[in-house]
Design a protein that fits this description.
about 20% helix, alpha+beta, single chain, about 30% strand
Length: about 260
């Protein structure tokens, strides 16, 4: 069965999500629609990219991922369909793809499907749906667009390595209020090289041990670990790390290797 995932900032209280799903089912009644999330902060491209980048590979190959972030028509934004690692992506060329992909996509097209005027303010239910359903039926990218070789770039803050120090920042707070940084397991391991470390963050707080799981420390105690995204997390066992530790997106963290 074909799968189309949805990642949007449409929320749950308005008609938009229903209109999107209904438009898909009109074209493909038997498709399996999977909600990754509709709770992205409005127009928050980096947040959507982080979630989709760390979740799409759990789906079967040939899954189609429809991205509904900042998709309203304007003269500068192109709508793209992309093949990457045997998955398909449909979204606006607003920089999100440069944040999701680590490598050059296998194939990319600028979608040339004509806009239905009655959907002028909501291309998600028209152009995006038609493109996603086309790909879900294992049809060619080039049937719905013209090839292109360049994506719009969007930059995010990267960790800074200075001899024995790695400076990173908070990039995401999850629903459990765990604090996720931009320091990857790969970078940490490379710089650590077997050494001890101290992780410093707000309010002169520090952690000097990696945990394997959240319950490795007593309830209410802070910890750090590499979670499902392979990014360094700061958490409190059964507690609100973001609120209790005063950590928010954009805050700086520092690791010193001894």
């Amino acid at each position: 069965m074909a799968i189309i995932t949805l990642t949007t900032d449409l929320g749950d209280k308005d008609i938009y999500q229903a209109a999107l799903k209904g438009s898909i089912l009109k074209l493909l009644p038997d498709v399996n629609i999977v909600d990754i999330t509709h709770s992205i902060s409005v127009f928050n491209v980096p947040q959507a990219a982080f979630i989709l980048k760390n979740s799409f590979h759990y789906f079967p190959e040939e899954t189609v991922h429809l991205i509904g972030i900042d998709t309203v028509y304007n003269d500068q934004t192109r709508y793209l369909a992309i093949s990457y690692h045997n998955h398909y992506f449909v979204g606006a060329d607003n920089g999100i793809f440069s944040l999701i992909f680590d490598h050059i996509p296998d194939e990319m097209v600028e979608i040339t499907i004509l806009q239905d005027l009655k959907f002028l303010h909501f291309p998600l239910a028209d152009i995006f749906v038609k493109a996603a359903c086309h790909l879900a039926q294992k049809r060619k990218l080039t049937d719905i667009g013209i090839p292109l070789i360049r994506l719009e770039k969007k930059m995010t803050l990267q960790p800074v390595v200075d001899q024995n120090i790695v400076k990173g920042s908070v990039i995401y707070i999850d629903s459990f209020q765990n604090v996720i940084t931009n320091i990857t397991k790969e970078l940490f391991t490379e710089v650590q090289n077997g050494r001890q470390f101290v992780l410093y963050f707000k309010r002169n707080e520090s952690i000097n041990k990696l945990s394997w799981h959240y319950n490795e420390v007593p309830e209410g105690e802070k910890l750090c670990l590499f979670g499902i995204s392979d990014h360094l997390e700061i958490a409190i066992n059964k507690g609100n790390a973001s609120g209790l530790l005063g950590l928010n997106v954009g805050d700086i963290v520092r690791i010193e290797f001894l």
